[in-house]
Design goal:
The protein is an alpha+beta fold and about 250 residues long. The termini are far apart. The chain has a 5-stranded mixed β-sheet. The chain has helices spanning about 5-30, 35-40, 75-85, 110-125, 130-140, 150-160, 165-170, 180-195, 225-235; strands at about 50, 60-70, 95-100, 205-210, 215-220. Helix 3 links the parallel strand 2 and strand 3 (about 95-100). The protein has a single domain (about 50-235), classed as 3-Layer(aba) Sandwich (Glutaredoxin). The radius of gyration is 25 Å and the shape is globular.
């Protein structure tokens, strides 16, 4: 090799090395994206057909994912707080998405009433889209009747008042005939428990989407309507380290 060619070889070697370094750096930035730049990971909510409130195109700016046991007075209080906040527009363009988290996961008879109600709600939504969340609210109201009348016959009565046909709804709620609905309820309940929500106790997640970034905050049965808006504000703050209302406010 002549001395005159050495500078050109060194220059070429340095150029290739620089290209490789840039390529690796770009690849690393794509696969190891910093949370401060790309935002927190999105919440992988399970599937649900029970939606209420938002009717626009695309995803709403706010989603309230609510996990309920329909045989729970605490669930009724939390359901009322959330739906009233949505009615008043306190959370902006928002949607309620309802999930099931009954005690016992509907595997045995320990949660028969809540599981029967959950199946009825899913069937109501299937038979008449939009009726599921309404029936859930009416089922929770039955808990406050003097005789606490949350039973199969009462659920069918309420469903008829909502315009549903009694016979097909009753057939749909038969677990032996619709194992897919039982499986859906089980998956939602397990998902809630693995994300830190107590079994048989209502709770959920408030999800906000701002400028392409999604942030979420968990809450428990203690959340009141008064606390819902501050939690919504907290979830939208990029500087907030945590927004968690799974415990009572001090």
């Amino acid at each position: 090799m002549t001395a005159s060619r050495l500078p050109y070889l060194l220059t070429a070697t340095l150029l290739v090395t620089a290209v490789v370094v840039v390529f690796v750096a770009v690849g690393a930035s794509d696969s190891e994206c910093d949370a401060d730049v790309c935002g927190p990971p999105q919440l992988d909510l399970p599937s649900s057909n029970l939606r209420y409130g938002y009717t626009g195109d695309g995803k709403p700016a706010t989603t309230v994912a609510l996990f309920l046991d329909l045989n729970s007075h605490a669930s009724r209080r939390l359901f009322t707080s959330v739906t009233q906040a949505l009615h008043r527009g306190e959370l902006g363009p928002a949607e309620l998405v309802l999930f099931h988290a009954p005690m016992g996961d509907c595997i045995d008879s320990s949660s028969a009433r809540s599981c029967d109600a959950a199946r009825a709600v899913e069937c109501a939504e299937e038979l008449r889209p939009g009726a599921g969340v309404k029936l859930a609210g009416r089922a929770l109201d039955l808990l406050w009747q003097p005789a606490d009348t949350l039973d199969h016959a009462s659920l069918l009565d309420v469903a008829e008042e909502l315009g549903l046909d009694r016979a097909p709804l009753s057939a749909c709620t038969d677990r032996a005939q619709r194992p897919d609905i039982a499986e859906l309820i089980l998956k939602q309940s397990i998902w809630a428990r693995t994300r830190g929500l107590a079994q048989g106790t209502p709770g959920g997640f408030l999800v906000r989407r701002d400028d392409g970034v999604e942030r979420s905050a968990p809450f428990g049965e203690w959340l009141t309507q008064v606390e819902l808006h501050p939690l919504w504000r907290c979830t939208g703050e990029t500087t907030a380290t945590t927004c968690d209302r799974r415990a009572p406010a001090p």
